[in-house]
Amino acid sequence: MKIAIVDDSDIDLEILKGFALQYCESARLAGSIHTYSNSPSFLENFHPGKYDLVFLDIMMQEIDGISLAREIRKKDSHCFIIFSTSSSDYAIEGFQVRAFDYMVKPISYQRFVETCNLCIEKLPCDNHYIEVKEGRTYTKVLISDILYTDYYNHYIQIHTQTSLIRSYMSFGEFQPMLKDYSQFLCCYRNCTVNMDKVNMIEDRNFVLHNGIRVPIAAKMKQEVHKAYRDYLFRRKLRSP
Predict the structure, then answer these.
(1) What is the C-alpha separation between 58 and 135, in angstroms, rounded?
(2) Chain-wide mean pLDDT for the chain?
(3) Does CATH number 1.10.150.120 belong to domain 130-238?
(4) Nearest Cα residue to 116 out of 106, 126, 105, 103
(5) Sites of the modification 4-aspartylphosphate (predicted)?
(6) pLDDT-based confidence at residue 125 (cuts at 50, 70, 90)
(7) Is the peptide bond before 240 cis (omega within 30 degrees of 0)?
């Protein structure tokens, strides 16, 4: 998740940056957080699609937050603008520039989390990751990069488009890491496929976009086929 924070108060800037770092870590989000102490420096670096969330103070010198939001909207109609300010007097103007939320300082971490959670519901989950131990180091793996996972010789194997990540753990230890992501389906003993990466289903195989075939256990065939049909139906409902 790409976040920008614009605030000319060094104290408030650091508070929001700390909140953003804590939230990304607790929510398992691969986040990039950029801070700006004035509006002109933000505008110099801004371009459409650069940020998912932009936190703006309103009472800033040079260019106030409302004016800055108008400049953002001229270039980017999709990013979430969230005002953080010491006054509620500008709430109506804030929503005229399609602000997602309006937070009055001092802002609690819980209030920050509630706003971010609402944003996440409307954003693709491309930034979510799991973290596994690979050798002596920990590796972050984006959920959207996973094709399928299997288990071999006491190692969980995470197959992505570009690499194979092996972590010494049981399938029972690994499986809960994916429980919040409904696109993953157990289709064979100790084998899980990412249905987002499936091109088609054959009788006893999933065929992924890159041509790789992931087997379906004979005794699980009916259950797996139904689960995949249900997944396709849910995806169709979510499509615009």
Answers:
(1) 48
(2) 91
(3) no
(4) 103
(5) 57
(6) low
(7) no
Q: Per-domain residue ranges for the chain?
A: 2-125, 130-238
Amino acid at 53: L
Tokens of 49: 């699609």
Show the tokens assigned to 186: 């157990």
Query: What tokens were used for 21?
Result: 């770092």
Whether 154 shows a pLDDT value over 90: the answer reads yes
Q: Where are the beta strands (DSSP E) in 76-218?
A: 80-85, 101-104, 129-134, 137-142, 146-152, 155-160, 164-168, 184-188, 191-194, 198-201, 205-208, 213-215
Please give the class, per CATH, of domain 2-125.
alpha beta
Take residue 181 and report the two structure tokens written for it. Answer: 């992501």
**Nearest Cα residue to 193 out of 173, 176, 178, 172:** 178
The pLDDT, as a whole number, for residue 106 is 93
User: Is residue 60 pLDDT above 80, yes or no?
Assistant: yes
pLDDT tens digits along 217-229? 999 999 999 999 9
Task: Report how far apart the first and last C-alpha atoms of the chain are (Å, whole number).
Answer: 22
Q: For residue 171, give the nearest of 192, 187, 145, 140 by alpha carbon.
A: 192
d(CA 204, CA 227): 14
Q: In 3D, which of 173, 201, 198 has the Cα closest to residue 184? A: 198
- 229 vs 240: CA distance, rounded Å: 19
